[in-house]
């Protein structure tokens, strides 16, 4: 009997698989990193030192990729916590301030009225915000303003906007967003948006991008509010 798996189920399986593989890679990777670092302390020749440096760089690269996928693992708790988005956004902006400073980017946050709480996996939401905010910062290599706004939507949802004054994207580029490994950056991994979209999907939310080349980009994230997720019986976090 041929079974048709719905697209969303397929994606969920892919996410779980990627997270599982990433998790399994972590321990051996830590071992490799440790021994490589130990060897770095007494390299047998300058040539060897050069090889070891390359190995550490490559290990770090694997680390970055696995970290992106790790976050897709299903939370172990049956019901996840309520998250107040305002302190979380403050935490994330603080986290990225030093990176922003390097390229003269200023991060402003505006919190319009009580924008309420959402329910979900805090680490996932945090990761998603970090990924999107990083992209906003990286879109402005010559500096500028990033504005993060949080507000209450009309349907009990929480809306988060991340606006930058960066390089922007053409409609062709916009269409490719979220494809795994799609990147236009020299040292980009092209996983940030893929993972972020999946996180938003996991939380029954949605994301939209508006962009004008040379002018900037606005990302609009909508996440169901706490009340909404309490009512819904298909919340992914209840098992
Ligand atoms: P990475 O940042 O590693 O390239 P992402 O998945 O985070 O991977 O982003 C994929 C691509 O989407 C980027 O390389 C860039 O071309 C484009 N992009 C994402 N966010 C923005 C933005 N705010 N402004 C301009 N381009 C963006
Ligand atoms: Mg990115």
TrEMBL record:
Residues covered by the Histidine kinase domain: 20-227
Highest taxon, organism lineage: Bacteria
Name of the protein in its database record: histidine kinase
Organism of provenance: Fictibacillus enclensis
């Amino acid at each position: 009997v041929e079974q048709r798996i719905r697209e969303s189920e397929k994606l969920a399986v892919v996410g779980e698989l990627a997270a599982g593989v990433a998790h399994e890679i972590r321990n051996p990777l830590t071992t490799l990193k440790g021994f490589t670092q130990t060897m770095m302390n007494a390299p047998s020749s300058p040539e060897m030192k050069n090889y070891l440096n390359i190995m550490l760089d490559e290990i770090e690269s694997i680390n970055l990729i696995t970290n992106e996928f790790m976050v897709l693992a299903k939370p172990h708790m049956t019901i996840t916590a309520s998250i107040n988005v305002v302190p979380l956004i403050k935490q994330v902006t603080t986290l990225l301030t030093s990176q922003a400073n390097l390229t003269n980017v200023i991060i402003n946050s505006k919190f319009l009225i009580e924008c309420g709480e959402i329910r979900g996996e805090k680490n996932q939401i945090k990761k998603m915000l970090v990924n999107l905010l990083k992209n906003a910062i990286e879109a402005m290599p010559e500096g500028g303003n990033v504005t993060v706004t949080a507000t209450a939507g009309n349907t009990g949802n929480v809306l988060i906007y991340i606006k930058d004054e960066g390089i922007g994207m053409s409609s062709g580029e916009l269409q490719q967003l979220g494809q795994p490994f799609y990147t236009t950056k020299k040292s980009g991994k092209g996983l940030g948006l893929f993972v972020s979209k999946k996180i938003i999907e996991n939380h029954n939310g949605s994301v939209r991008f508006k962009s004008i080349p040379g002018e900037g980009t606005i990302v609009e994230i909508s996440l169901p509010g706490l009340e909404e997720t309490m009512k819904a019986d298909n919340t992914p976090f209840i098992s």
